[in-house]
Every structure is written in C-alpha cells, then in structure tokens.
Structure to design on (215 residues):
C-alpha cells in the first residue's frame, strides 16, 4: 500500500510491526473512548467495560492505568474474562440476566461510566441501566438500537455518547504507551491459510484479544 510520511510512525527498534498493527484501528478506537471516559471519571470511581475483546482489552488497560478508575469487565467468553483478570480488572462478570443488579450492588448505586463495545444483542439496552445518577454511557459497538424512556433520562440526568475511531495524534500517544509497556496488545496470530480457523475461533469466542492475520 502506498502512502506518505504523514501517515507513518517510526517504531521503537524493539517493537515488531505484527505485534502493534491492530493499534492503528482497534487500538485508537478504544484509546479515544478511554480518553473521553477519563473526563467523566476520578480515581476510585467505577467504569464498566462491556465486551473485553480486541477493543475492550485496550480500553481496560487505558482507563485503569492512566486514570485509576475501578474496572468492572463484562464478557460472556471465558477467554475474555480471563484476559480481563490478567489485565487487572477489579471485578469480572459473565453478563448473566441479573447483570444490572450485580453492577449496581458492586458500585453502590451504579457505574459512573459504561463503555459498550458490543452495541447489539441486548447489550445496548442493559448498558444505560447500569449507570448511576449523572452517569455516561459511551457507545462504540453497533448493530442494535438504544431505547431509553425520556422520563428516565430526565430524572437520572444520564448521558449517551457515541465514539468513533481515533486520530493520528492519539495513535502516536498510544504507541508511546505501548513502548513504555503501559498498554499492550494481546492477540493471536494466524497464517493466511488459517483464515477459516480464525473466523471459526472468532465466532465461537475462542480468541482472547485481537486476531492478527499474517502472510
């Protein structure tokens, strides 16, 4: 692929391109929303991360290590939950039917921020219900639709915000954090001739972190 120097970042000599390639897409998307969440969080406050996959595990590290929030990680995949534990999530939940009540009990009334990396299959409807008074629901994943009673938004004063991919400056920042070892990409590599296996592993939630196809 042809590009110009403005689209390039010089890598640390100890960094292999294959180990950081997804940071240019999944990484900065997660980092951008983590920065937005940081404006709403103080150390010790509660942040729910719904979906600890290729994006969620980057956001988990960013929010925890850079802003000191208490992380509640939620995922239905055992591999993702184990990754969340390894990355220092304070609480790890499996997304059962009682998830809203579980979060409210852990946070003594609701999370200050919920970041939804799923955005469909019902996740978009439980996310805003986990918030406390004045909390913010950040939507990153998509596919579903958020339906909130207007009276609930008025009474609780919650906010719902979307977040898209990051920019060049945020990529530079994230790469620096990666070089320092503060935010690391966790993933699984597949050869190009293993593409079908990669798709099957993805569909069956066997991938912890991000899948990377190499040739």
């Amino acid at each position: 692929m042809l590009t110009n120097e403005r689209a390039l970042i010089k890598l640390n000599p100890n960094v292999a391109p294959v180990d950081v390639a997804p940071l240019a897409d999944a990484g900065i998307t997660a980092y951008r929303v983590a920065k937005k969440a940081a404006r709403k969080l103080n150390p010790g406050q509660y942040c729910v991360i719904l979906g600890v996959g290729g994006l969620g595990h980057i956001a988990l590290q960013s929010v925890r290590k850079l802003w000191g929030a208490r992380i509640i990680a939620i995922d239905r995949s055992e591999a993702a939950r184990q990754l969340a534990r390894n990355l220092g999530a304070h609480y790890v939940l499996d997304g059962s039917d009682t998830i809203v009540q579980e979060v409210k009990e852990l946070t003594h009334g609701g999370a200050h921020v919920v970041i939804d990396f799923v955005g469909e299959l019902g996740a978009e409807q439980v996310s805003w219900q986990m918030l406390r008074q004045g909390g913010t629901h950040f939507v990153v994943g998509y596919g579903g639709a958020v339906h909130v009673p207007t009276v609930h938004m008025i009474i609780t004063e919650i906010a719902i915000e979307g977040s898209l991919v990051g920019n060049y400056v945020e990529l530079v920042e994230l790469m620096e954090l990666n070089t320092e070892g503060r935010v690391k990409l966790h993933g699984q590599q597949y050869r190009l001739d293993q593409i079908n296996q990669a798709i099957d592993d993805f569909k069956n939630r066997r991938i912890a972190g991000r899948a990377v196809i190499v040739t």
Observations:
- Residues 26-38 form the longest helix (13 residues).
- The longest strand covers residues 131-139.
- Residues 74 and 93 are 5 Å apart (CA to CA).
- The two ends are 15 Å apart (CA to CA).
